[in-house]
UniProtKB/TrEMBL annotation:
Keywords: Methyltransferase, Nucleus, S-adenosyl-L-methionine, Transferase. It is found in: Nucleus, Nucleolus. It is an enzyme of class 2 (transferase). Residues 1-44 are annotated as: Disordered. S-adenosyl-L-methionine-dependent methyltransferase that specifically methylates the N(1) position of an adenine present in helix 65 in 25S rRNA. S-adenosyl-L-methionine binds at G166, D186. Its main location: nucleus. The keyword Transcription regulation does not apply. InterPro entries: Bmt2/SAMTOR. This is 25S rRNA adenine-N(1) methyltransferase. The keyword Magnesium does not apply. GO terms for molecular function: rRNA (adenine) methyltransferase activity. Its EC number is 2.1.1.-.
Amino acid sequence: MRPHRAPTTTGSNHSRSDFNKYPNSSLRFPSMTRARKRTKKPGSILLSRHRNLRGDGSSVVASRVLSNTSSLSSKVGRALIRNHHTLQKRLSQALSKNDTETANSIRAEIEADGGIERYQQASVCGQGNQRGGDSSKILIGWLREVIQSSTNKKVTNKRLRLLEVGALRPDNACSRSNLFDVTRIDLNSRDPSIEAQDFMDRPIPTADSEKFDIISLSLVLNYVSLPTARGEMLERTTEFLRHTLLEGDQEEGPSRVTESFPSLFLVLPAPCITNSRYLDEERLEGMMGSLGYQLARRKLSAKLIYQLWHHIGKARSSGRQREFSRKGEVNPGRARNNFAILFR
Ligand SMILES: C[S@@+](CC[C@H](N)C(=O)[O-])C[C@H]1O[C@@H](n2cnc3c(N)ncnc32)[C@H](O)[C@@H]1O
C-alpha cells in the first residue's frame, strides 16, 4: 500500500497554536473586542483549536468561513492553511504508526475545521492578486516568450496538452490563455471541469496521445507530507510527458521551443528551498537531473519559487537517483525547516 500522502508545512514546527498567534481574536474574547470597538475586516476570523463546536461536531468558525468565501483575510487564510497542513502531517504520522484511534480523532478535527474544502477555499483566496496572485501567470509569461521566439509555425500553432495537478479553479491564467488543452485533476473537485483524482492513482498512459507536453505541480508537492512520497510524485511526472510533439522542429536543430518541452512547472513555497535543512536549489537540481529534468526557467519571489523543468528524457538522466535516498544536511542551523524530498 502506498504511504498516506498528506500536506506538510514548509517544515517548520508549529508548536504554538494559531489560537496563541492571534490572541486578540474576537472569537476568543468577544466582549473584549466589543469593548475596544475594533473595526474588524469581514471574514477576519480566528483559526483556533479552541473554537466553538456545534452539536453536530462542525465548527462555527468553519461554517462562517465557508459562507464567506470571498473575504477571508490573508492572515486568517494563511493560519487556516498552516493548521490544515499540520493536522494532515499528524494524521500521516499516526497512520504510519497504525495508530487508528489518534488518526480518527485527527480526521474528526480536520472535518470540524471544514476539511479540504475549507483549505482549498483559503488557497483560492491566496491566489487573489493582492496575495501573490495566480502562479500560472508566470508559466504563461515564460511560454509566450518561448513560443513567440519560434519561427516554426508547425509548433507554434499546436495547442499544448497541459495536465494541471491540484487544480482549484477552471479559470486561471493557463485556462484563459488558449495555449493549452487543459486536463485538470484534484483530490477534491470544486468544479465539474476538474476531475476528482489523486495524481498518484492516475493510470500511467501508454499512448502518446494521452500524455502531456507540460504538467503543472503548483503548490502540490508541499501538500504531500512524507519526503519519499514527494520523491514518488516527482518521479511519476516523467511517465506522463510525451516527447513527440516537437518532432519536425528537432530537424531544424535545437530551438527555445525544443529546449522547453516536455516540461514540468513546479511551484513551492520559497522556504522549502531557501530555508530547508535538507534541500536547496543545488540539491533539487541534482535530484531532478537524476529523473532526466534540466532547469529551463526559475523565479524566486518573497513567498514562492517557480521553476520550469525541461524533461530531456530518462535515457539522458544523470542516473544518480540512489544518491538522494537519504537526507543530507545542506543547510545546518536551528532556524531551518525540515522540508525534504527523497527517492526510494
Ligand atoms: C494549495 S492548493 C494549490 C492549488 C493551485 N495549484 C495553486 O497553485 O494555487 C493544493 C491542491 O493540491 C491538491 N492535491 C494535493 N495532492 C494531490 C494529489 N496527489 N493529486 C491531486 N491533487 C492533489 C489539493 O487537493 C489542493 O487542492
